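Lecture 7 notes: from sequence to structure.
We start with the chain below.
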Amino acid sequence: MWRILIFSVLTALVCQSKGHSVSQTESEGASPPNIVFILADDLGWNDVSYHGSRVKTPNIDSLSKTGVRLENYYVQQVCTPSRAALMSGRYPIHTGLQHEVIYAGQRSGLPLSVKTLANQLKERGYDTHGVGKWHLGFFEESYLPTKRGFDSWTGYMTGNEDYYTHVNCESLGCGYDFYANSTLDMSDNTTYSTLRYTRRAKDIIMGHQTDGPQSKPLFLYLPFQAVHSPLQVPEEYIEPYKRSSLSPQRQKFAGMASCLDEAIGNITSYLKSKNMWENTILIFSTDNGGETNAGGNNWPLRGKKWTLWEGGVRGVSFIHSPLFNSTTVGTTHRSLMHISDWYPTILEGILSHTLPSNLSLDGVNMWRSLLTGSEGPRTELLHTIDPLASHPGVALYNDTFPTNTTAAIRVGDWKLLTGYPGVDKIFPPVNYYSDYFNYRVSNWHWKTLNKIARIKGDEANYFHLMHDNEYHDLQDRHMQGVLYENDFPEIYQLTASGEVKNVWLFNITEDPEELIDRSDDFPEIVKQLLDRLAEYNLTAIPPNFPSPDPAGSPANNGGAWKPWVNTGVVSTLINHVNSAIVRTKSFFGQLILWE
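Predicted structure tokens for the same chain:
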């Protein structure tokens, strides 16, 4: 049976430890590891216990604590672009999926020229199975996951749906959306989806052949529906939160997160009972920041899902494996990392496979950095460039990237945002729905004021505007843990109502909450980052964001969301056009980068 030499980067570490480690599988001639990738939907920074949340996630906490927690990890601001980056190893500007999401009825999808992560692993001898949400196109059968490298798929194709009935309502109407492979599956519309997906994962694991000439390693991709809206969960999962101070909305959300956490614990148990756990690498990631309108929270980060602020793009993630060396277990990874990095990290790092350069990857292999804690190879990150988003104000610079185009980029410590990055509010924890915040929030306010004063070197600006009695009253209320949101409007909201502003600069290392805009203080850094955006923009392909096609309406397709275009006719044309654009723009982009 085909064997892959893996983990050679850790040979030195093996010599330092007597315990079993991932590195030793090479010398032992063991099978390549099973890879389980769990993708949560809309899980925010403040939605896991280990970030201080009131939401109980004991399995996530335990696995991350005994693995590697990724605390400088980024995703896209919304569902489709993140999933495209994971499956392709490319930024969304290089797949045409940089604008919003794929809505049901759109003739859009991850380009067929892209060899997905599942394609790659299948070619390398893996059994590949997906359970959950696809959201990378289904207008033609050729875009379905079982045509993109997955041996099987159980789940849905669109962006959201009812957790029980599997009905999704969008602009073209309401339709059923649940598949077994490429066929609609209407056998069960009463089981809560998280439980149904867990049951399917159990069937895959327990049915997986682990020995004999036909045995293969397993790639199990689990993009759960939870904790995306609608807020639905069996009552038993809400019950533990009913006597808490959480708002009713937050209680439902917490129940959904707890159910998801339980599912993760159950999946690890199934792997153990099948004797697969000792040779498994488990990766966990969210797809974007929490949606504050649906119970999620990203405190203390600014923004939410759909925004380019840290609350929209900084993600919860960890990697865990019994194969890890003792020097890896229990560490925190603080190097810059993006969801697109998993593609080369899995293929080049874990499996030691050299990828061809014509894949035009944006992701980088982070494996050595994850295992050793060394500084990672990524030094910059393009969050996005979205030419279809709103264009507020006018461009502030000539001969560079226009500041009224929505984009964001991170280079080193610095993050630049342009155009309209989205709602710029910091949303306090929704735990506390009475008219004041608890001590945790109060203490954050006070530290934040002093931090602003320190960085700006202008403490008086934040305190002298209050009369003495107001200042002392504020101090007294702080000591009691009673502070109101409008005590510090400049902390919660960056721009005044009606103000047109289209460029911001933050030192994210120093100021992860994006409290202090430094664009006026460092115009030369602004210009440098704008020039970098301009270089990226030369390599971008146009967003593939057509209007929904009425022919795709469930009313025309038996009441369901399903492929409605003859295979090959449209996709072949789109594929050829996009491939030509990518090749041309990549060529000229490289010429610029080489100058």
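Points to note: The longest helix spans residues 248-273. DSSP finds 17 helices and 18 strands in the chain.
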